[in-house]
């Protein structure tokens, strides 16, 4: 396998329209390998559209998206990129372990590896429960296990912590950080600003444009603010000409 490039994801002048309305407007960024990048912005700002472009399921008008040196969504990436949607992509009539075993089989993994993924997300005690009977947080963990079983080099998560209690959110973020320490590249979308400090780098998206692409520390320093929510508000007001 060729070495992973320094930029695991490279987006250049990306334009996406929905109907006649522009959703993403000439956005560009480079996401470093082995990092956790937060994609933050209000609902409707274009986060899910950007994520879909990265995983190769979004039709684009112009621009390029490369992942691990290949065009997004191309065949060489099928075993290297995993996508966890906002709504858990699992089968309600299967148990937790059966769900993960199914996805494992699709990628040539065995049941032992599937169970390891179940344990990895803290669902070992619930492995025999039907997915339809799980709580929201447990469904999210199960969906994550289905993605982790392929051992992806790039893991893309669309608002994985929405609606979860603080304890589960904390545990999930600990898992995300550990994956990055092991070399995976994570792109995590959220509209919750207090999650931003957990990321190595932030992409702040508003109305289809990046208004910031920086580390949390540098973003606070450049805006002269003490927290990232204040930094985000400062950037918005600056763009709108509000003092």
From TrEMBL:
<dbReference type="GO" id="GO:0005524">
    <property type="term" value="F:ATP binding"/>
</dbReference>
<keyword id="KW-0067">ATP-binding</keyword>
<dbReference type="InterPro" id="IPR003439">
    <property type="entry name" value="ABC_transporter-like_ATP-bd"/>
</dbReference>
<feature type="domain" description="ABC transporter">
    <location>
        <begin position="9"/>
        <end position="232"/>
    </location>
</feature>
<dbReference type="Pfam" id="PF00005">
    <property type="entry name" value="ABC_tran"/>
</dbReference>
<dbReference type="InterPro" id="IPR003593">
    <property type="entry name" value="AAA+_ATPase"/>
</dbReference>
<dbReference type="InterPro" id="IPR027417">
    <property type="entry name" value="P-loop_NTPase"/>
</dbReference>
<dbReference type="GO" id="GO:0016887">
    <property type="term" value="F:ATP hydrolysis activity"/>
</dbReference>
<keyword id="KW-0547">Nucleotide-binding</keyword>
<protein>
    <submittedName>
        <fullName>ABC-2 type transport system ATP-binding protein</fullName>
    </submittedName>
</protein>
């Amino acid at each position: 396998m060729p070495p992973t490039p320094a930029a695991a994801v490279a987006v250049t002048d990306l334009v996406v329209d929905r109907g006649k309305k522009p959703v993403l407007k000439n956005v560009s960024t480079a996401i470093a390998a082995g990092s956790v990048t937060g994609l933050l912005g209000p609902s409707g700002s274009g986060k899910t559209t950007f994520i879909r472009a990265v995983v190769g399921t979004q039709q684009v008008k112009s621009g390029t998206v490369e992942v691990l040196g290949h065009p997004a969504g191309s065949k060489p990436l099928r075993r290297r990129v995993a996508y966890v949607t906002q709504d858990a992509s699992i089968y309600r009539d299967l148990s937790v372990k059966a769900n993960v075993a199914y996805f494992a089989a699709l990628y040539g993994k065995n049941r032992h590896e599937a169970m390891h993924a179940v344990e990895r997300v803290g669902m070992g005690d619930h492995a025999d429960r039907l997915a339809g009977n799980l709580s929201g947080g447990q469904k999210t963990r199960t969906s994550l296990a289905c993605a982790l079983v392929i051992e992806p080099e790039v893991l893309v998560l669309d608002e994985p912590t929405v609606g979860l209690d603080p304890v589960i959110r904390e545990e999930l973020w600990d898992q995300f950080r550990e994956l990055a320490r092991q070399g995976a590249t994570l792109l995590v979308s959220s509209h919750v600003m207090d999650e931003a400090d957990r990321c190595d780098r932030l992409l702040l998206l508003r109305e289809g444009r990046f208004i910031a692409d920086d580390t949390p520390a540098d973003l606070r320093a450049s805006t002269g603010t003490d927290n990232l929510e204040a930094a985000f508000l400062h950037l918005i007001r600056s763009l709108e000409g509000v003092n």
